[in-house]
Amino acid sequence: MRAIRAIARRELAAIFGSPIAWVLLAVYLVLTGWFFYTDVAFFVTFGAQVLATGLWRFVFIDFRLATLLVVPLVTMRLFAEERKLGTMELLWTLPVRDAQLVLGKFLAAWVFVLVLVACAILPLAVFRVFHPFDLGPPAAGVLGLLLLGTAFVACGLAASTLTENQVVAAMLTYGLLVFFWFMTWNEAAGNEGLIRFLLLFSLFDHYYNFAVGQVQSVDVAYFLLFTAFFLYAALRSLQSRSWRGVD
């Protein structure tokens, strides 16, 4: 556990020591603020009555897009930069297990996601000052956004273990996440049974329930399994150096 914390602290210092992180936070804050403002304007203009389906659904679906845009740009450097600078070999000489290395870097990026979610909460907090509302539905949306961001981090981390090029790592992450986004969009491409099967794996269909204020155990389990799968993939990717003859 001490090694994981040390790696996480090292990675957090690298993340927040870079101007890119602060630019991404600023971009995320502007995007979520703008999305929230336009969604409230739409809600008021068209006289919607139910916040959960008339406002929060659109807010958290838009926040999903902002999170998708930002997170891969944070995770792309986690291992790719180490490979590029040649420091991966140095890390492998330390008394640190591969699992500890993966978890430490994952924890650091996850803390960054926590900061992103805190930025997303800011416009909601301001709105509540002027228009009190029930905290239940948006709390579900915030939980869904956090789980979604966690899944993004795990996916991006796994992609970053495959290359020393950060741009390639980011594009691979975008490709995987967009695939999980669009896999059920074209219902005409398959029969009802196939679409129902694909819904089991659709990242954003599981997120939708959170966006409308519903927390279901199956959706929580899906995100946890999605995260665990890509963390395992990242671990196996690192361990593959043994059969490539790299120690």
Number of H- or I-type helical stretches? 11
Number of structural units classed as domains: 1
* Helix content bin: over 70%
- What about the largest sheet? none
Residue share in β-strands: under 5%
Spans where pLDDT lies below 50 across 5 or more residues = 242-247
Q: What is the helix/strand order? A: HHHHHHHHHHH
Number of beta strands: 0
State mean pLDDT (0 to 100 scale).
85
Backbone shape: globular
Short description:
The chain has 247 residues and is mainly alpha-helical. Helix content is 79%, strand content 0%. It has one domain (2-239).
Tell me what you see in this structure.
With 247 residues, the protein is mainly α. It has one domain. Helix content is 79%, strand content 0%. The chain is built from eleven helices and no strands. The chain has helices at 2-16, 19-45, 51-75, 80-85, 88-93, 98-130, 136-160, 166-182, 192-199, 203-211, 217-239.
Features:
247 residues; 11 helices; 79% helix; globular
Topology:
Layout: H1 2-16, H2 19-45, H3 51-75, H4 80-85, H5 88-93, H6 98-130, H7 136-160, H8 166-182, H9 192-199, H10 203-211, H11 217-239
Helix pairs in contact: 1-6, 2-3, 2-6, 3-6, 3-7, 3-8, 6-7, 6-11, 7-8, 7-10, 7-11, 10-11
